[in-house]
Design brief:
The complex is a heterodimer.
Chain A: E1 7-18, E2 21-32, E3 36-40, H1 47-54, E4 62-67, E5 70-71, H2 77-82, E6 85-88, H3 100-105, H4 115-131, H5 147-160, E7 165-169, H6 177-192, E8 196-201, H7 204-210, E9 213-218, E10 221-227, H8 233-241, E11 258-266, E12 279-284, E13 288-292, H9 299-307, E14 314-319, E15 322-323, H10 329-334, E16 337-340, H11 344-348, H12 355-359, E17 370-371, E18 374-375, H13 377-390, H14 407-419, E19 425-429, H15 437-452, E20 456-460, H16 464-470, E21 473-478, E22 481-482, E23 486-487, H17 493-500, H18 503-512
Parallel strand pairs in A: 3-8, 3-9, 6-7, 7-8, 13-20, 13-21, 16-19, 19-20
Antiparallel strand pairs in A: 1-2, 1-4, 4-5, 9-10, 11-12, 11-14, 14-15, 17-18, 21-22, 21-23
Helix pairs in contact in A: 13-14, 14-15
Chain B: E1 2-5, H1 11-35, H2 43-52, H3 55-80, H4 88-103, H5 111-140, H6 144-164, H7 198-216, H8 218-228, H9 230-236, H10 240-267, H11 278-288, H12 293-317, H13 322-343, E2 344-347
Antiparallel strand pairs in B: 1-2
Classes of the chains: A alpha/beta, B mainly alpha.
Chain lengths: ~525, ~350
């Protein structure tokens, strides 16, 4: 190895156990100055635990953390910050009601800064944002910024503190492809100046684009480390999950009749989240409609309307040809809509309920599960057992609280719960988010099976690759407006990205006027 | 140090911390008794003897436990759905008020008819008293802790007004006290000659009913779902607000039944000292019982036992009766801590 290379970070023999679970098992990881290491792994592989140990939020059972040759005291976040470690979390840690300047200087120096101190800080921020092409106004309120801008603030915050090691946790989850390119351009500039980066991601093509080296973590152990130049996506996928990933094979199909139609549906905005703006959409039997878009652009609103939680303020919902007046979650279930919610922990399941209780959550009132207000636990339990068996839910049994299940098994129970009712329409909102590849393939397989038997599926996802692989027709949603439908393979990711950024809509308006 | 949840606590894990909490309560109470000048080693024995040591003591404890079972159930039912009813005190008085309004001569029917009618109307009154806070919460998001708590004071002053005015017993020699119930409106004793009325049996039956509702009925399932995760319950199609209103009605009705039982079973008339805070002590009972309706019976017996036992102990050992209150407070604090320790383990980093 080249001796002139400075070692920025060295994690040595890090082991961390939680009860019987070994989250990190003798993990060794080193990072040179100016190097980008991608940390790749399924959910639950131990990436977050490792980063929390590096940051002093957890104390390792054994092992040492060295930053530029100095050993960090265990369990001391302040020491990690002082040593120049910075982290941009997946969920931003900014105060909405403060300005960009205030957010960046928060925690650095005194709260009672003089006006001279402030203007010095402002100059510094301006200089940094110019140098690294991070355009954002120092005096804007963070609450008014877009997601992409907020991320720039997070990165500026780190740069302002002179971090030398930057950890990025799934930084592109909320970005359009174009914004991702901008982020990478910025990172390359900072890397050229000697910044070292740990890049945590699921997305293989991004890992290929930005990293020098890839380290794969599996079940808490490092299972592979390769130079990016010497590998490809397939090899990485194999390293990550042990077997090679197979993208879903989607056979051709001709659409059947429209099972659910939204006709010029408008809903009010909810806080920062835009409502729907005159959205028309029809879901046809045997077809998957993919809904692409950057997080927080009306996906929640459309899911709420289809799922029965929100009644349109204007416009109509039509199911199997007839207009809907009463519209509640219970009505939606009764009308044969299977709803896979975005957040399986908070919305999809009740953590302290056992599997049986969770299995009947949507249909406890239907005949078979209760009679005259009294539950039939025997048939309910049998239903849960049937789901566990058929959908391969790994659990100790139907009487287990669902909170101890992994995300994938939780999702399998939800799938079973909704698919056992042989639904006409399936609303799948982020059905594979946070799942490992095995579970992803399983969920996709189940959706395709439902498609083959004639269900109409609305697939909402922020992962463009998923939408493109699964959908017969893709719509893009941006700021509550829906794009026209694009047939399979008719658009490139870049073209869809333009729509996601709202540009397609402008062009459309220009044509119209 | 931090807390780590235990997914499947062992039997010992569930048993040892509460047992330790109980022992620590006794040790602390003994020390306090010693400071007050009594023999610390005699405290526990005197309390147990005072609460359960004789037929008289035992009956006294059961009588004292009766209203606590009702208010404990009222609180347990509401808290299970995360509806924070702090107003069991007012609801209990509502039941008591109905009992004297109807039972002092307004209705002259045989016992078999008048008692169920009064009980039903009392339940209806208590339920309706909680309807307003429930609707304020579901319609306008008004915090029910504030409304139910403040309603206690309003309602007690209202009762006081009635007892000083229209309800005042003309034969009461000027005391703010209602007329006595007619004999037909009195709850009889379970066994002749033993000072224990049917209110206690009613309390036990109520606890069993609540338990069956919670574990077997769709309403109980809905109430638990709403309490554990409102968002998921609403998503699945459970009408969250309606369930909260139903919960409130059940809770208020149970507390009111306690008022009916106290007046018709024990006191025979309504005074302002009918309840020495049964509504508030019900919160302690429900918490000690982990909101389990059958646990409420045990917790109510425990709390009543401490009250009656400490009362007797303080007389025997010549220490202040406040020791009972202190013991109860300590046992609650330690028990809350113990309950946490049954579900979490402390990990040193």
């Amino acid at each position: 190895m080249d001796t002139s290379v400075v070692e920025a970070l060295n994690l040595e023999d890090i082991t961390k156990r939680f009860g019987t679970l070994t989250a990190n098992d003798a993990v060794n990881l080193s990072l040179s100055e100016g190097e980008v290491v991608a940390l790749l792994g399924e959910n639950g592989a131990g990436k977050t635990t490792l980063m929390n140990i590096l940051f002093g939020q957890y104390t390792a059972d054994s092992g040492t953390v060295r930053v530029f040759g100095k050993t960090l005291p265990p369990g001391n976040s302040r020491a990690a910050l002082d040593a120049g470690v910075g982290m941009v979390h997946q969920h931003f840690t900014l105060a909405d009601n403060l300005t960009v300047l205030e957010n960046i200087t928060l925690g650095v120096g005194s709260l009672l800064s003089t006006s001279a101190g402030r203007s010095a800080a402002r100059d510094r921020i301006k200089a940094l944002s110019q140098k690294y092409h991070l355009s954002v106004s120092p005096d804007a309120r963070v609450g008014a910024l877009t997601v992409g801008e907020r991320q720039r603030v997070e990165i500026l915050k780190a740069l302002y503190r002179d971090v030398r090691i930057l950890i990025l946790d799934e930084p592109t989850a909320v970005l359009t492809p174009q914004e991702t390119d901008d982020l990478f351009a910025t990172l390359r500039l900072a890397i050229a100046d000697g910044l070292s980066v740990i890049f945590i991601s699921h997305k293989l093509h991004e890992v290929m684009a930005i990293s020098d080296r890839v380290v794969v973590l599996r079940h808490g152990k490092i299972t592979g480390g390769v130079r990016t130049a010497d590998t490809d996506k397939h090899a990485l996928a194999t390293l990550m999950m042990g077997t090679e990933a197979t993208p879903p094979k989607v056979p051709q199909s001709t659409p059947g009749p429209a099972l659910l139609k939204l006709d010029r549906v408008t809903t009010p905005d909810v806080g920062n989240a835009p409502g729907l703006k005159s959205v028309s959409l029809s879901l046809h039997a045997g077809h998957i409609i993919g809904l692409a878009g950057v997080s927080g652009n009306g996906q929640a609103a459309i899911a709420d309307v289809v799922g029965g939680l929100v009644k349109p303020a204007e416009g109509r919902i039509e199911i199997a040809g007839s207009d809907i007046n009463r519209w509640t979650p219970r009505e939606a279930v009764k009308r044969g809509i299977a709803r896979i919610p975005e957040d399986r922990h908070k919305t999809g399941t009740i953590a302290d309920f056992d599997l049986t209780e969770n299995a009947i959550l949507e249909r406890y009132r239907s005949r078979g599960f209760s009679k005259a207000g009294w539950l039939n636990w025997r048939s309910s339990r049998a239903f849960a057992e049937a789901i566990i068996k058929k959908y391969d839910v790994r659990c100790p049994g139907p009487d287990t609280p669902i909170r101890i299940l992994s995300g994938g098994n939780m999702q399998k129970l939800i799938l079973g719960r909704v698919l056992e009712a042989a639904p006409q329409v399936i609303l799948a909102n982020q059905p594979v988010r946070g799942l490992d590849i095995g579970a992803v393939n399983y969920v996709h397989g189940q959706l395709l099976e439902a498609r083959a038997r004639g269900a109409a599926i609305l697939l909402i996802s922020e992962d463009l690759d998923e939408v493109m692989a699964m959908s017969d027709v893709i719509h893009v949603i941006a700021d509550g407006k829906l794009s026209p439908g694009f047939g399979r393979g008719s658009m490139t990711p870049t073209e869809l990205g333009l729509w996601m950024a709202g540009q397609g809509f402008e062009n459309e308006n220009a044509h119209a006027s | 140090m931090r807390l780590e949840p235990i997914n499947n606590p062992s039997f010992g894990r569930k048993l040892v911390p509460p047992a330790l909490a109980l022992s620590a309560t006794i040790v602390i109470a003994s020390l306090l008794a010693m400071i007050a000048g009594a023999n610390p080693f005699s405290v526990l024995g005197l309390i147990i003897k005072g609460a359960f040591g004789s037929k008289f003591a035992l009956l006294e404890t059961l009588n004292r436990a009766t209203p606590l079972i009702f208010t404990g159930l009222a609180v347990a039912v509401a808290f299970r759905a995360k509806f924070w009813n702090i107003g069991a005190e007012a609801q209990l008085y509502a039941g008591a008020l109905i009992t004297v309004l109807l039972g002092t001569g307004a209705l002259v029917w045989p016992s078999g008819l008048i008692l169920p009618v009064i009980a039903l109307i009392a339940v209806f009154a208590g339920a309706n008293l909680l309807l307003v806070p429930a609707l304020l919460k579901t319609r306008f998001g008004v915090d029910e802790v504030v409304t139910t708590l403040l309603f206690n004071f309003i309602f007690l002053l209202f009762i006081s007004m009635l007892l000083e005015g229209p309800l005042k017993d003309p034969m009461g020699m000027g005391w703010p006290k209602s007329a006595r119930l007619i004999p037909e409106a009195r709850l009889p004793r379970i066994v002749n000659g033993l000072r224990l009325h049917w209110g206690f049996a009613l309390a036990i039956i109520s606890a069993l009913c609540v338990w069956v509702i919670q574990t077997r009925s769709t309403l109980g399932y809905e109430m638990r779902a709403v309490g554990l995760n409102k968002q998921a319950a609403g998503f699945a199609g459970i009408p969250v607000n309606l369930v909260l209103v139903k919960t409130a009605l059940l809770s208020g009705g149970l507390a009111a039944l306690g008022g009916f039982s106290e007046v018709a079973g024990l006191k025979g008339s309504l005074t302002l000292d009918l309840s020495p805070g049964f509504g508030y002590t019900g919160i302690i009972v429900a918490m000690l019982a982990l909101l389990n309706p059958l646990g409420v019976v045990i917790a109510a017996l425990f709390v009543a036992g401490i009250f009656v036992g400490a009362d007797s102990m303080s007389r025997a050992a010549d220490v202040p009766t406040y020791l009972a209150d202190i013991m109860l407070a300590i046992s609650l604090l330690l028990m809350v801590l113990a309950i946490m320790l049954t579900r979490f383990r402390v990990v040193r980093d």
